[in-house]
Amino acid sequence: MEIRQLLHNEFEASINLSEYAFQYTLSDKARERAQKRFKPERVWGIFDEGVLGAKLTLLPLEVYIQGKTVPMGGIAGVATWPENRRQGLVAKLLTHALERMNELGQLLSFLHPFNIPFYRKFGWEIYCEYKKYTIPVANLPVKTVIEGKVKRDANDIGLMSLLYTEFASKYNGVLNRSQEWWEQSVVDEDGHDVVFYSALGKPEGYVLYKIEKKELIIDEFVYLNEQARRGLWTFISNHDSMVNQVSLKMVPADDILPFLLPDPRIPQENFPYFMGRIVNAKAFIEGFSFAAGAQGKVTLHIKDDYAPWNAGLWEWSLSEEGQSSLIKVEGDSKDADLSCDIGALTVLLLGYKRPEEMYRYGGLSGNPAAVSWLEKAVPCSPTALFDFF
């Protein structure tokens, strides 16, 4: 068995495996487009006598954590031929990918799981969720007179990118989108966009949407203030003669739209979404900003079977200003004030779950005083992700 990056002439082997594993068939036009975008250096395969048996794509991305960008390795396109399954090939690829991400300084890794329990074994854990709303026309927000205007189908990616960054960077775990990402993964050539401008001409929000079969589907709703939110909803509600309902997907978990509707009894769904994993605990924790005034020192035991540089006992010190250091020391879990696996540590620090909550349900163990210290030290932060890969 050999693990290596794919070559340019191995596009067909890669796409054939993807088509089989994910049960789709590309048209000739789509296949040609995919070949032009093919970046073999991002695809890692495991080969047996030169034949591709399994693969994954490792994307060099960045995400916002506490409003700052952090390098992240995105895992995508994990696929294996059926005759090669249950032979540990994916485990070997994931282990190799973790080593590679650590070498590249990618402090986090995110993926969309085909099976959550499978990836939990390797240290990834659910870190965000999203809501989906279906709003009948009769339940749409009330139209209001707003000082400002909207501009439809300007297709100004640069402008929308600025608005997205200001809106999205308040969440932990959202993507820092490049121009290429906007063009290839966000903007739909069959869709529409609308931008809201204040009375002073300042852009303050946008919506990406499409209309299909009497339904207006909102792919992304970004607003910087209440005026922009109401202005955009008035624009959407003005489609009431054209559509029967409006659906919103990828709504962040902290959204309160139903409460603001005239009648909030609308169909609502909640979905666990992406999984995250700290790749390098020392580097991530030492770059994280903890709450000021929560200084102290504890010992932390981390369980990580697939990134051994994280595993073991650490002395964790936190300064009055909220800066920390993590130093490896001798000992095991019996000597620790706090103990958890790498997945639990990830969701605690990103803000998806709180330390006391995880302690209550067994995801975090240790002495109560240390748990209370960690509860005070970790800032409350919402998590989200508005993209897919």
By DSSP, the count of extended strands is 20
Return Rg in Å: 23 Å
How large is the share of residues in beta strands?
Answer: 25-35%
Helical coverage, percent range: 25-40%
Structural class: alpha+beta
* Span between termini: 27 Å
The overall pLDDT, averaged over residues, is: 97
The major sheet is characterized as:
8 strands, mixed
Uncertain stretches: none
Q: What best-fitting shape do the alpha-carbon axes yield?
A: globular
- What is the number of helices? 12
Structure description:
The protein has 389 residues and is of the alpha+beta class. Helix content is 28%, strand content 33%. The protein contains twelve helices and 20 strands. It has helices spanning 11-22, 28-37, 89-104, 116-120, 157-168, 179-186, 226-237, 257-260, 281-286, 342-350, 355-360, 368-377, and strands at residues 2-5, 43-48, 51-65, 68-80, 108-111, 125-126, 129-136, 148-152, 174-175, 192-198, 203-212, 215-223, 245-252, 268-272, 275-278, 296-303, 312-318, 324-329, 338-341, 365-366. Strands 1, 2, 3, 4, 5, 6, 9 and 15 form an eight-stranded mixed sheet that branches. A seven-stranded mixed sheet has the order 8-10-11-12-13-7-14. Strands 18-17-16-19-20 form a five-stranded mixed sheet. The mean pLDDT is 97.
